[in-house]
Amino acid sequence: MIDKNSKVILDVKGLKTYFKTDAGIVKAVDGIDFTVHQGETLGIVGESGCGKSVTNLSVMRLIQSPPGKTVAGEVMFQGTDLLKISEAEMRNVRGNKISMIFQDPMTSLNPFLKISTQMIETIRLHEKNVSKAEALSRSIEMLKKVGIPGAEKRIFCYPHQFSGGMRQRVMIAMALSCNANLLIADEPTTALDVTIQAQILELIQKVNVEMKTAVILITHDLGVVAGMCDNVCVMYAGKIVEKAPTDKIYKFPAHPYTEGLIQSVPRMDKSGEKGKLFSIEGQPPNVIDLPPCCAFHPRCHKAIEGLCSRCNPPTHMLDEDHEVTCWLYGTDQEKSAALKEADARQASKEASK
Amino acid sequence: MSESVKKPILEVKDLKVHFPIKSSGGLRKKDAVIRAVDGISFDVYPGETLGIVGESGCGKSTTVRAIAQLTKPTSGQVIFQGKDLCKVSKHELLMARQNIQMIFQDPYASLDPRMTVRSIIAEPLIIYNKRHLLPKELSPLEIETRVEDLMERVGLNKAFKNRYPHEFSGGQRQRIGIARALALNPEVILADEPVSALDVSIQAQILNLLRELQKELGLTFLFIAHDLAVIQYISDKVCVMYLGKIVETSESVELYSNPVHPYTKALLSAAPIPDPEVERKRRRIILTGDVPSPDKEHVGCYFYDRCPNKMDKCKNHIPPMFTVGPHHNCACWQLEEKFPLAESEK
What we know:
The complex is a heterodimer.
Chain A: E1 8-21, E2 24-37, E3 41-45, H1 52-59, E4 68-77, E5 80-81, H2 87-93, E6 98-101, H3 115-126, H4 132-145, H5 151-154, H6 164-176, E7 182-186, H7 194-210, E8 214-219, H8 222-228, E9 231-236, E10 239-245, H9 246-251, H10 256-263, E11 315-319, E12 322-325, H11 332-352
Parallel strand pairs in A: 3-8, 3-9, 6-7, 7-8
Antiparallel strand pairs in A: 1-2, 1-4, 4-5, 9-10, 10-12, 11-12
Chain B: E1 10-21, E2 32-44, E3 49-53, H1 60-67, E4 75-80, E5 83-84, H2 90-97, E6 100-103, H3 117-130, H4 140-153, H5 170-182, E7 188-192, H6 200-217, E8 220-224, H7 228-234, E9 237-242, E10 245-251, H8 252-257, H9 262-270, H10 276-281, H11 312-316, E11 322-325, E12 328-330
Helix pairs in contact in B: 3-4, 3-5, 4-5, 5-6
């Protein structure tokens, strides 16, 4: 849980990551801002292809370049801009200060190496003065912490001897072994069953509370977010469309997309209501060469004709901590200004033709 | 639904599917067996949706594949229209499959990338037409209009019929798969995780489509999912599977409001609910351990290793199905005192 005074440890401003492809420039992340406080759990939700993973890979500077490139923005982590430091310095941040849990526990461990080798390597890479024996005992301790029975023996096993849930636990143990300040969990439970998912989520929550580690949880599952996060960012087509504390976003979803997402999930606790599910019609947009307007307008049930399809929506604060980017909350002044701009754009386009 | 009058359209009786695994030589050579499905029975009534839930590896998909005879069952019966599909001739199986069609999980893998949408949807029609198995012979033109009708019915633009699967998104591909399954006018549709590969907003579209189709065409669904909320939304009755066994079966509303088996309880409590207020108030039953490997023969309850309320009896006696209420059965020894078995069932 966060208290209001805890300090900001990650501050992302105007982050843009583009990919160059033959078909055009893919604006995977297109100008997003968010902050993470110490001890906070921030959820990033969205459908596949909305840029949630790219956001976090950009923060870690793990985007393959080419084709990808972080073209603008800053990522302030404990006072330094991660996008400006050298690769060597960045290596010191990865794992040491920010660590990551990946989606697929089956492929993110090296199948040729014993768990012990992989864990010792991680620890010794970050803390040069630790002896092998010391690193081993610390690894065993970490495995115990994440609830692996018989850790003293199991540490000498190979990844294939572990089940999916156990492998994910090993991943978490490795991610935690260097006492990072920020843990980025990229869909940590998507590949797991519900009962195992509950175990892993409880573990992440425990780490968050006990070690005061801030967590960024990327997921598409609104149920997981509801149970885990303090704040939520909803992403659509590379942009954050709504940002608010978890309670507010579920109770008063302001953006039509958030509203649609929440309503389109069948609810287990509301049995009997078996009417038609609310569904967002259409398909998620292709993010290549998006026009300068709201990317959601073709699917939106509240779209304002002639406005949403032409102009970029403004960002408004509905509350001190509830931010939404949608024309529904635009002032008349903004609307007329944006329309004028769109007219001018069109006119210059026609003139150049 | 009055079941005394209605006859089940599909009956599964003590179905077992075991896969032998050959160990590679050695002196102590011993062939092990994976008991994917280990003796399950259920009935499906016309116009109804039976949901099967369970974690990965519990045998849901194998059950469905065994019903369609894509995997030959080791023992047991699958009775459809009075015939045991495990024993019928090839010709009769072909006739039965006309009425039992499948929708698959992965819309990316279940469509041939080198066929156009038209040829994918028309394929079942062409096959059955060639063998003169359709009630009425179809001309190529009739097949063409049928394909167009089907595409429109599932919400695809019929102008796309000459396109290839890669030109469509996941949700649209799943629609193509549904159109293909509907081509022969089947009575029963076996849907193996049809929405789990899709995004949330698309998932709702497909679920709505399936319900509409059921209402309109009077289809019977056997619906597999691991998402409990989806199963609850779509099903009339639910079977909960664990390690190849059905541990609890009941009407959907009853199961979700009054789960009896400890595994069902844990499963329901572990599934997250998209509402922070509800989430905070809920108490989770966290199961320890993982699902054991299904390669040994069980002498006791299959859930024994992970059960929070295990008793001595559970270790060495397989629990029978106790009747808890109308249409509500559960295999757990804890129910023995409260709901004793009738003499005949012992």
